Amino acid sequence: MNSEGGILNNRRETVLILDFGSQYTQLIARRCREEGVYSRVESWDWPLADIKKLDPVGIILSGGPNSVYEEGAPVRWDDLVGLGVPVLGICYGLQVMMLREGGVIEAAHSREYGRAKVTIQAESRLFHGVDAEQPVWMSHGDHTTRLADGWKQLAISDSGIIAAVEDARRNFYGVQFHPEVTHTPAGDKILRNFLYDICCAKGGWSMRSYSDEAIEQIALSLGDNGVICALSGGVDSSVAATLVHKVAGDRLRCVFVNNGVLRKNEASEVESIFRPRFKDSLITIDASDDFFADLAGISDPEQKRKKIGGRFITVFEAEAKRFKDAKFLVQGTIYPDVIESSSSKGPAKIIKSHHNVGGLPEKLGLKLIEPLRDLFKDEVRQLGRELGLPESMLMRHPFPGPGLAVRIIGEVTRDAVKILQEADAIFIEELREAGWYPHVSQAFAVLLPVKSVGVMGDNRTYEQVIALRSVDTRDFMTADFSPLPHDLLAKVSSRIANTVRGVNRVVYDVTSKPPATVEWE
Predict the structure, then answer these.
(1) Which of 178, 245, 355, 397 is catalytic?
(2) Starting from the edge strand earliest in sequence, which strands make up the sheet with 58-61, in order?
(3) Is 439 a known active-site residue?
(4) pTM of the full predicted structure?
(5) Domains, the chain, ranges and CATH?
(6) Which tens digit of pLDDT belongs to each residue from 439-484?
């Protein structure tokens, strides 16, 4: 296992993705894996000697936030040309290829961002079986205005931008749009054409093989040492704990910390689910008083995350001292946590810090194992099925590491937590009752820092507002709000306003990601 928790195997057929800093880079990797081809992400400047040693069947150049004309912008192409390997450039990756080949890239006067339509103008293996007109997702400023010699234009956007090119003789291809995101419906087909028709991949990679290799690599990393797992009861930490338990057995201590900002009845549910599975290896700690003391007077979401992360570290440090053989800490960090906190390989822009990946101090004294770090949520669920975990656990909606602290906009108090716990429980209960819960990706309530005038009986009220949020997504990198029925929302709103003391208004969030994030903070 490498330092970032990825499972590496140079013996297998691999597509190499060179990361120029796109927020979507790992989506490319995920799509390749979905198609049965193992993929590996490395920085755009990964040494040529290592590329040759890996011997990839194909290379994909990711998008990125830079202009190719910026001073210090990441540009790499010349040393890749002689490898004789098919290459696909995406967005910025296309611009890098075209610039170095002698084409012309026009610096942006304005960005083309969001949904667009492209028209395929010429036959190509890249677009085999794809309809001539396609909706796609654009996210770029610069664009190609003149092709290099030997290249052919394959598609044009509805705004007149060159949308796809090829040098079929050398198996070089480029698209200005993002085939890896769900907003490009034919993106999977385009990537499949590249992998199988152009790279001649054989496929066959699966989550079963990931599980086998993860167990093997965890065993090599742990040796005979003890290990502590940060168990929250959510999907990610549950799968991570089960995976490590297969290796460590009773050398694993699963530590559940009640931080006071959990869902309603969370602590008792975790105890009932995991005590039979892990027995004496499950350790529960109620540190809610300490967390509330740390959060007192703090409204900034980044400070909340840092305070919660710091307290978690303190708790684990204290717990580790009880177990002299503990040398490792397991966390259920998954890739959306990482990509929104910092770039995994390239110069991506930071969106928010995450308590699992946001600056663990050297003083922790435990080496970190994050076996799910390269996986997306649905891949984690697939892995959980391979490990025999029940569907009721695996299909539970995601819950943020900082808990309700980042669903309470403003200061976190015990009263605010109680209000939100009750409102959130009603929302989830009604979703389950109506049969919607398994059909939406993530649903929750948010407590807003505003009050509104209302009427209850004959009395004027001036109380707080609850926002409901429900999204549909495949990978949590992009998401659409769930089209919940109006009668369901009305029922939820009525129950919350009538039974949750301190709330007199309920609203529904109809913002997609982007431009918003799934969570409010």
Answers:
(1) 178
(2) 38-43, 14-19, 58-61, 87-90, 172-175, 162-167, 152-157, 112-120, 133-140
(3) no
(4) 0.68
(5) 14-198 (3.40.50.880), 207-394 (3.40.50.620), 413-508 (3.30.300.10)
(6) 999 999 999 999 888 876 656 778 999 999 999 997 777 899 999 9
